[in-house]
């Protein structure tokens, strides 16, 4: 009674809103629930982009490159994230096209319902993630959830595959980052040794090594090699 006394008068005062719209027709309620589900999916879109695509590996590797060069905020975060996004769209284009053809377009045309659309969309995403997920990482989450060893890809739930894929991507990105750091570390050690032998211990080695790092990176066409390595790692 209290809710009806305070809330219903407030609802009826909303312009263009009819409270009987949700109560008279059950189909209207179903449409409203579908709208809420769509809004929920849109709110989770950043998490889906980060954890279910190649974005994580790419952005971490690019960040390692900047840290290895010791250029602080050059390139800026906006450039790195923008490049990572477009590389992600380029790598994920075949998978997204398959999702659009098999799930999204039939669902918008009314040929399939939401459940079937979700099931169809999950298949190409699962294939991509399973290809780049280590068995050890997947077994960790499958075992913790008490699930049996899967016989096929359909037996792997997304709740276990997504975090397994995420930590596999983190490991791969850090492995690539280690290889990127090695040549820069060699330059730092050489510059530090030369400065110490010359008695210039008060001069920061990072300041002297920075132009040599940039010169080496430009001469070997570093950005081309980094992007090429990232693309080949997903082939």
Give a nutshell description of this structure.
The chain is mainly alpha-helical and 235 residues long. The chain contains eleven helices and no strands. 77% of the residues lie in helices and 0% in strands.
Q: Can you offer a commentary on this structure?
A:
By secondary structure, this protein is an all-alpha fold. The protein has 2 domains: 1-46, no CATH class; 56-61 and 76-233, no CATH class. Helix content is 77%, strand content 0%. It is built from 11 helices and no strands. The protein has helices at residues 2-12, 21-24, 26-43, 45-51, 55-69, 77-108, 114-131, 135-144, 158-197, 205-219, 222-233. Helix 5 runs antiparallel to helix 6 (77-108), helix 8 crosses helix 9 and helix 9 (158-197) packs across helix 10 (205-219). The longest helix has 40 residues, at 158-197. The chain starts with a helix and ends with a helix. Mean pLDDT is 78; it is low at 1-19.
Indicate the radius of gyration in whole angstroms: 26 Å
**CA(first)-CA(last) distance:** 63 Å
Q: Helix and strand string, N-terminal first?
A: HHHHHHHHHHH
Percent range for β-strand residues: under 5%
**Largest beta-sheet details:** none
Proportion of residues in helical segments: over 70%
- Low-pLDDT parts are 1-19
Mean pLDDT: 78
- Shape descriptor reads elongated
The number of helical elements comes to 11
Count the E strands.
0
Question: Total domains, how many?
Answer: 2
